[in-house]
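Team,

Forwarding the record for the chain on the shared tracking sheet. I've put the sequence and predicted structure together so nobody has to dig through attachments.
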Amino acid sequence: MPQQRHPDAELFQLEQEMETVKVRMNELERTQSRLSRKAEKAAGAKPLHPSAWEMPSMPDDLKDMLTSARDRKMFGDLVKDGFDWRPAPVQAWHEAVAKERAQIQAAWDEYSQDGSLL
C-alpha cells in the first residue's frame, strides 16, 4: 500500500522556504546597513535638512518690545508700513533668523547637488 502524503506537506515545505528566505533577507539587511554607514561616513557629515529646522522662539524682551510697538500703532498703519514699524532689535532678530534659515538651505543644497548623496 502506497504511503499517503500529509495533507499539509506543501504548506510545511513553503514554511521552510519562507524561513530560508527570511534568514537571507536579514543577512542582506545587515549588509546594507553596514554599507550605508560606511557610505555616510565617507560622504562626511550630513547637514540638517531644511524641513527639520525649527524657527527659534523670540526672546521675551523682544516679544515685549514688539508688543509695545504694535500697541502704539493703528492697524491701518501696520498694514501700510509692512514691517518697517518694528523696533531695530526685533528687526535684527528676524534678520538673524532669516540668515540662519538661508544658511541651512544653502548647506543642504550644496550637500544634495549630487543626487546620489540623498
